[in-house]
Structure formats: structure tokens, C-alpha cells
Specification:
The complex is a heterodimer of chains A (221) and B (582).
Chain A lengths: L1 H22 L24 H27 L13 H24 L3 H31 L8 H32 L4 H31 L1
Helix pairs in contact in A: 1-2, 2-5, 2-6, 3-4, 3-6, 4-5, 5-6
Chain B lengths: L18 H5 L5 H31 L9 H37 L7 H20 L29 H30 L12 H33 L9 E2 L2 E2 L7 H34 L7 H14 L15 H29 L8 H24 L1 H7 L3 H31 L5 H28 L17 H33 L59 H4 L5
Antiparallel strand pairs in B: 1-2
Helix pairs in contact in B: 2-3, 2-4, 2-14, 3-4, 3-5, 3-6, 3-7, 3-12, 4-5, 5-6, 6-7, 6-8, 7-9, 7-10, 7-12, 8-9, 9-10, 10-12, 10-13, 12-13, 13-14
Classes of the chains: A mainly alpha (221), B mainly alpha (582).
Chain lengths: 221, 582
């Protein structure tokens, strides 16, 4: 469980650091009255959806690190036979990297309120992501043809499960992406979708990082 | 830290006009909280009845033909899982969390009301799926609430086909529902607090609920990972957990899987789960004690940090549930040490509750009775936890009734007493009526004394060596006949306590319609959920203007103040300033 503990230590450490900054030298029993001081309370200027997403990224990080911990523990056993990763995974990784790049471009265009730029970059990013999912399915097909089935060996099982869970997260993101595209198609003004585009971008960068981590894990074992 | 008030977006709340919109597909956090409470109570009653079935078998072995070993194990399993996950977790976070977090933070609603609604409906679906397992071929799983493989998914165990699949699917759904709800509670407390509600002015109820939610968000993925792998092992023949094994004379196709891996994953969720249930109880009971003793909570900052410390430490004690799994003794030493360390912040909380009571103006109202009852049962369950946290003491006591007595006291009875206290306290807020006091006091004394009659003897028979989860003890040399007498007495007490809970349900239903009308702030509390313009609060909670917070939540018996409490939103004035600061 080392991988998970490291991740959780980082998350809890961040939380504690933030709390210390909020609570140090604060004596709530001795204070009364006016707001608007350092700790005015109330909402932060960060949109709620962004905080929600960041919290969710914490949940997803915990999930993937637990899978990684389980992977490390399970591979200690004698029946583990490493599976040769299909070469198409490199191509898929490149697609996901490009997807992230185009999301970033869409986000930058949204900040500059360029409707066309947002739309085109979003569309390209989405298509690249669909291509990534297709590529992952292609990798599955390759493994099946090579006789590496889900239940054949724990290494195979982990390969299928990890890629599937990652793809499910991406599909969730694509749902939000499709909502944003739909709004743009209906001539909704750019500033109204800016937050969605920004959150999608953060989410895609995160899922790219997760994929790079998973791919490295698969390659190294 | 600009105040861009999400909380102020009152105009964006859609106020539904139809009955279905208001009470069924509701996005109002209070209604969703009540929906959670009703569902959790309903499924809790199912779990209560299952415990009755167990006790009938143990008290009167062989008398009831409808309780055969399989049914007994199924009752054990479903009772445990339903009570811990579908009842207590859902009740505290889905129920109290939904109702209290926005109201106590001064928000109009949760940050994401639609997702909040979705959270409840997915939770309901998970409850339906877990209850559906009573009706599938061979019935629900009987593998014990810990669902250890290979037993849970091997032919020959009760419910090893459909039952276990219903369980894993319902748990996965529950995790999804909890995540949607949890994102709401955390974001609301971080983002939607009203002006002046600094973190250190938040009532401890909110602190407890939020920290428990953070634990849940980080720990429930471990449950999700384990049930996904278990489902694949069962349905698609993978070998994540299933070792090479023979079942009913046949070698199964599995090879090399690790049941211990499941234990690690399960308890990585399972131990924080104890605190997911306990922390909201800690928070709520702090507020109840302070309010009903008319005294500020002792050591507020320490209470907050104790909650945070317990939350952090709860992630590094999980393997104390696995001392008998054959782990490296050095691991055992490490986990015993961390387990003992977690007792420090917990003890701080207990001392602070007692010190809050000390020289307080104690009102023995029903919520206060339950709170004081909680201090007793929690100290009791906590101290037996110190026994079990030590490897050398745990090994002989492992899997005996001592463990059953311990965990029921610490995470069964104690949180339930707070649930009851919380309901008696906040029932008027939601309904405008008081619960019947006499019935409440009868309910308290029957429950409090009854649980001692149930769980104290369990410690004794556990020390004698009576194993847990056994359908029948049979005849052994080391168990005297008096064990059966104890079992009979426990069963009788359990039936009485169960009956008392129905008295409580009757009280709820009766008082909802016929109860005495409550005043605006019947407990004279400082927290702002009692300060809404409408009473009970309506959708949107706060009318045109959000409340502005001027002080912390514990301004009770302030010297020089005209009353013995000053609400958090009351502006400072000559009357309230008095001699001391508030």
C-alpha cells in the first residue's frame, strides 16, 4: 500500500498546511463582529465547480493509487507473467497528449473570448480523445488475438481493468465536453462556457498524467 | 479572499411548484436529507430485524426451524453491512450532512443541488439492489460483512452466486452516490459559507461531517477497487483474490490470487469507515453538549485539530484488523503503535466533553441524556479498543465475542445514541413540533441500559473464548453452561431494546402530526440553523438577505449578556459586549 500511502500523505499534508494557515493564531472565542478581515469567511473567488472538480481529482487519485498498490502487491506472486504491451499504446499516448494540447488552446481561446477558436480546438480535442478510446480498444483486440484474455493471467487482468477504468473516466469527461459543444452549437456566449472549458482542460491534463503513470507502470513490469 | 457569493445566488435556485417537484425529485438539501434519513431508517429496521433473528438462534438454539446455518450467516452478513454502510454512513452524511451543512454555514443550498439529488437516487438504487439480494436464488451473501474471499465467492457458501454479486454491485453504487454527495458537502463548506463564517467559527457538527466526508472520499475508492476485483473474480474468472483452490472436490480454474490483498484493500476502507461514522457523531455531540449544558465547548481549537488528527491517523491503522492474518510481526508492532497514538486525540475529545459538562448548567433534556449516554458508551468501547489494538492481547481475543462487544459499543451504540440525540434536537427545526418528552426518556433509558445488558456480557463470554459468527457453540470443555444463560439474557435484552426503537418510531410519527408546537429556537441555541426567517426553513433557507456571522458558535452564558446565549448572527451591541468578549 506504499503508493497509496504516499499519495494520501501528500493530500492530507496539503490539507493540514491549508488548515494551519486558516487557524493559526485565530481565537474564535475572543473575536466578535465585523467581517472583511483576513478570514472573512464566505465564498472564495474560485468557482464552486472548480473546487468540486479539484476534490474529485483527489478521489480519482486515491482510486488509481489504490489500483497501483494492488498491482504491486499482486505481482509478487508466482503466477504473474508480464504481458507485452501492444505498440499502439505509444500512438494512443501521443493522441492523448495532443488532446490535452488542444484543450489548452481551447481554454486560452475562451479566456480571450474567441468563440471560433474555442469551438474548433474543443472539437479537435474531443476527436483526438475519441481516437484514443478507439486506440485502446484496438490494443485490447491485439491482446485478444495474441491469446491474452482477461482471466488468463493477473497481469492481463490488471491491464484490462486499469485501461477500462481510465477510459471510463475519460468517457465521463467526454460527456461534459459534449454538453459544452452543444451549448456552443446553440450560440451560447463564450463567457458562459468558459468555466466548463477550463474544467475540462484541467480534467484532461489530469487524465493524461494518470495515463502516463499507468503506462509507465505497465511498461516497467 | 473576495466574497463572490455563490451563497448569494438565491435567484438561481429553481423553486418547484408541484408536489412531486418539491418532495420527490427535490433539489432542496433539507428534503434530500429527510429522504436519506427515511431510507436509512427503513433499511436500518431491516438490519434490526436481522439482528433479532441472530439473537433468537443464539438465545434459543435449535428452537426456530426457519433459522438454519445459512440463514444465520446471511443475517449476520446483511446486518453488519447494512448497519455500517447503508444505515449509519448514509444517515450521518446523507441525512445530517445534507440538512446541517448548508444551514449551519449560512448557505442557501448545496453547491450542486442537482448532483445532490442524483446522489440520493443512486443511494436509493444501491439500497434496492442490496435488499433485492433477499429475493435472488439462494438469498443474500453469508460471507460475513467483511466479504473475505475465497469464501465469499466459492460454491458452498450461502449466496455465493447472486447474493455476492448483488452486494458488490450495491456497494459500487453506494460509492458513486456517496462521492456525488461528498463533493457537495465539502464544496459547500469550503465555498458557500456566508459572510463572517470563518472556518474557526463553524460549529463542530460541520467540522465532524466535513472531515468524515473527506475520509470517505479518499477511503471509499478502496472499497470500490476491492468490489470491482471481487466481481471480476466471481463473474469473469480472474484471479485477483482467488487462490488455487479446490471446491466441493473440484479444482477451480483460479491460480495464485491473494486473499490477503483483499483484506488490505477492504480494511484500508474499513478502518477509516469507523471514523466516517464516528467523526460526525463527535461533532454533533459536541454541539448538543454545549447547547444543553449552556456552556461554551471546552477547547474548541483542540477539538477541531483532534478531528483532523483522527482523520489523518485513521489511514495508518488498518492492519490492526489483520493481526491474525499471518503478517510480519514488525508490521503488527507498527500498527499497534499507530493505533495507540490515535487514542490521544480521541481522549482529548472525551476530556473536553466532560470538561464542558463540568460546572455547566446541565439541562437533562432528551438530547442531553443521549449525549451523556454517548460519553459512557464511547469511553467503554474506546477502552476495549486499546485492548484489541495490542497484538498480544488481540491474538487470543480475535474473532471472539469480546470483539463483537467492543465494536458494537464504539461504532454501533455510540453513533446511534448521537443519531437519536440529533433527531430529538433538530426534529423541531424540520417539523415545527417537539418530540414527546416522556416517550423520549423511556426510549433513552431502555436503549442505554438495554445496550449495556446486551454488550457487557458479550465481553465476558468473549474472554471465555466464545467465537463470533458461530451458528451454534456445540459442546466444548472450555465453555461453561452459564454461557448459554448469558446468551439467553442477551437475547431478551436485545428484544427489549428493539421494541424500544419501535416506540421511538411511533413517537416520530405521532409527534409529526400531534406533537406540541415548538417555539422558534426551543433549545435556545446559538447556531444559525435556528435563525432562518421562516420556521421551519423553506427552500433557499434565508429569504432575501443571507445572515452575517459575528461570532463563534458557542457564546453561552456570556457574562453581562442579557440572555444565556447569543446567536452567531446577532450584531454586537452594548447588551452583548458586557464584561467579557464573546
Amino acid at each position: 500500500m506504499t503508493a497509496t500511502l504516499i499519495v494520501l500523505a501528500l493530500i492530507m499534508g496539503g490539507l493540514v498546511f491549508w488548515l494551519i494557515r486558516q487557524t493559526i493564531n485565530v481565537q474564535p472565542w475572543a473575536e466578535e463582529g465585523p467581517v472583511g478581515q483576513d478570514h472573512a469567511g464566505g465564498a472564495y473567488s474560485v468557482p464552486a465547480a472548480k473546487i468540486g472538480l479539484i476534490v474529485f481529482l483527489g478521489v480519482a487519485t486515491s482510486l488509481f493509487s489504490l489500483f497501483a498498490s494492488a498491482y504491486f502487491q499482486r505481482m509478487e506472486f508466482g503466477d504473474w507473467r508480464p504481458v507485452a504491451e501492444p505498440g499502439v499504446l505509444w500512438f494512443n499516448t501521443a493522441l492523448l497528449v495532443l488532446g490535452s494540447v488542444f484543450f489548452q488552446r481551447a481554454r486560452n481561446a475562451a479566456v480571450r473570448s474567441q468563440a471560433n477558436g474555442v469551438k474548433i480546438n474543443l472539437l479537435i480535442a474531443g476527436m483526438l480523445t475519441f481516437a484514443f478510446i478507439g486506440g485502446q480498444l484496438w490494443a485490447w483486440k491485439g491482446l485478444q488475438e495474441a491469446g491474452h484474455f482477461l482471466s488468463g493471467n493477473p497481469a492481463n487482468s490488471f491491464f484490462y481493468v486499469l485501461t477500462a477504468i481510465h477510459a471510463l473516466h475519460i468517457l465521463g469527461g467526454l460527456w461534459v465536453w459534449s454538453q459544452t459543444i452543444f451549448k456552443l452549437q446553440n450560440k451560447v456566449e463564450v463567457y458562459k462556457v468558459r468555466t466548463s472549458v477550463e474544467l475540462c482542460t484541467i480534467y484532461w491534463h489530469f487524465l493524461l498524467l494518470v495515463w502516463v503513470g499507468l503506462f509507465a507502470l505497465l511498461l516497467s513490469t | 479572499m473576495a466574497h463572490v457569493a455563490l451563497a448569494d445566488k438565491g435567484q438561481e435556485l429553481a423553486h418547484p411548484k408541484t408536489w412531486i417537484g418539491m418532495y420527490v425529485w427535490s433539489q432542496d438539501h433539507k428534503i434530500i436529507g429527510i429522504q436519506y434519513i427515511i431510507t436509512a431508517t427503513a433499511v436500518g429496521v431491516v438490519a434490526l430485524i436481522l439482528s433479532g433473528i441472530m439473537r433468537l438462534q443464539l438465545g434459543f438454539p435449535g428452537v426456530f426451524d426457519f433459522i438454519q446455518p445459512d440463514e444465520y450467516y446471511q443475517a449476520v452478513t446483511m446486518h453488519g453491512m447494512i448497519m455500517i454502510v447503508f444505515m449509519l454512513t448514509a444517515f450521518f452524511l446523507g441525512g445530517f450532512g445534507n440538512i446541517l451543512v448548508p444551514l449551519m454555514c449560512g448557505a442557501r443550498d448545496m453547491a450542486f443541488p442537482y448532483m445532490n439529488m442524483l446522489s440520493y437516487w443512486v443511494y436509493l438504487l444501491s439500497v434496492i439492489v442490496v435488499c433485492a439480494s433477499f429475493f435472488v436464488p439462494e438469498g443474500p451473501t453469508g460471507a460475513g460483512w467483511t466479504l473475505y474471499p475465497p469464501q465469499a465467492i466459492t460454491e458452498g457458501s450461502a449466496g455465493a452466486d447472486w447474493g455476492i454479486l448483488c452486494m458488490t454491485v450495491s456497494l459500487a453504487l453506494f460509492v458513486v452516490a456517496f462521492t456525488m454527495g461528498g463533493l457537495n458537502y465539502v464544496t459547500t463548506a469550503f465555498q458557500a459559507r456566508t459572510r463572517g463564517m470563518t472556518l474557526m467559527r463553524m460549529p463542530l457538527s460541520v467540522w465532524g461531517i466535513i472531515m468524515a466526508t473527506i475520509l470517505g472520499l479518499l477511503a471509499f475508492p478502496a472499497l470500490l477497487v476491492s468490489v470491482i476485483m471481487m466481481t471480476l473474480d466471481k463473474a469473469l474468472g480472474t484471479s485477483f483474490f482467488m487462490p488455487a483452490i479446490s471446491s466441493l472436490g473440484e479444482n477451480l480454474a483460479h491460480e495464485g490470487g491473494s486473499p490477503i490483498l483483499f483484506q488490505h484493500l477492504f480494511w484500508f476502507f474499513g478502518h477509516p469507515e469507523v471514523y466516517i461514522v464516528a467523526l460526525p457523531a463527535f461533532g454533533i455531540v459536541s454541539d448538543l453538549i454545549s447547547t444543553h449544558a449552556r456552556k461554551n465547548i471546552f477547547g474548541y481549537r483542540m477539538m477541531v485539530w483532534a478531528i483532523v488528527a483522527i482523520g489523518g491517523l485513521s489511514f495508518i491503522v488498518w492492519a490492526h484488523h489483520m493481526y491474525v492474518s499471518g503478517m510480519n510481526p514488525y508490521f503488527g508492532f507498527f500498527f499497534a503503535t499507530t493505533t495507540l497514538i490515535i487514542a490521544v486525540p480521541t481522549a482529548i475529545k472525551v476530556y473536553n466533553w466532560v470538561l464542558t459538562l463540568w460546572q455547566g448548567n446541565i439541562h437533562l433534556t432528551v438530547p442531553m441524556l443521549f449525549s451523556i449516554g454517548f460519553i459512557f458508551t464511547f469511553i467503554h468501547g474506546g477502552i476495549t479498543g486499546l485492548f484489541l489494538g495490542n497484538v498480544v492481547v488481540d491474538v487470543p481475543l480475535s474473532d471472539t465475542y469480546f470483539v463483537v462487544g467492543h465494536f458494537h459499543m464504539v461504532m454501533g451504540v455510540s453513533p446511534f445514541l448521537v443519531v437519536f440525540g440529533g433527531i430529538y434536537h433538530w426534529f423541531p427545526l424540520l417539523t415545527g413540533r417537539m418530540l414527546n418528552d416522556t416517550m423520549g426518556k423511556i426510549h433513552f433509558w431502555m436503549t442505554f441500559l438495554g445496550t449495556y445488558a446486551i454488550y457487557l456480557p458479550m465481553h465476558y463470554i468473549g474472554i471465555l473464548g466464545v467465537p463470533r459468527r458461530y451458528y451454534a457453540n456445540g459442546t466444548t470443555e472450555f465453555l461453561p453452561d452459564s454461557v448459554q444463560t448469558a446468551n439467553l439474557s442477551i437475547t431478551l435484552a436485545a428484544l427489549v431494546v428493539a421494541a424500544a426503537q419501535f416506540l421511538f418510531l411511533i413517537n416520530i410519527i405521532w409527534s409529526m402530526f400531534k406533537g406540541r408546537k415548538s417555539s422558534r429556537n426551543p433549545w435556545r441555541a446559538t447556531t444559525i440553523e435556528w435563525q432562518t426567517p421562516d420556521y421551519p426553513p423553506k427552500h433557499g433557507n434565508w429569504g432575501k438577505e443571507l445572515p452575517v456571522i459575528h461570532r463563534w458558535a458557542y457564546s453561552y452564558s456570556v457574562p453581562g449578556a442579557k440572555e444565556d446565549f447569543i446567536p452567531q448572527n446577532e450584531p454586537p451591541s452594548e447588551h452583548t459586549r458586557g464584561e467579557g468578549k464573546v
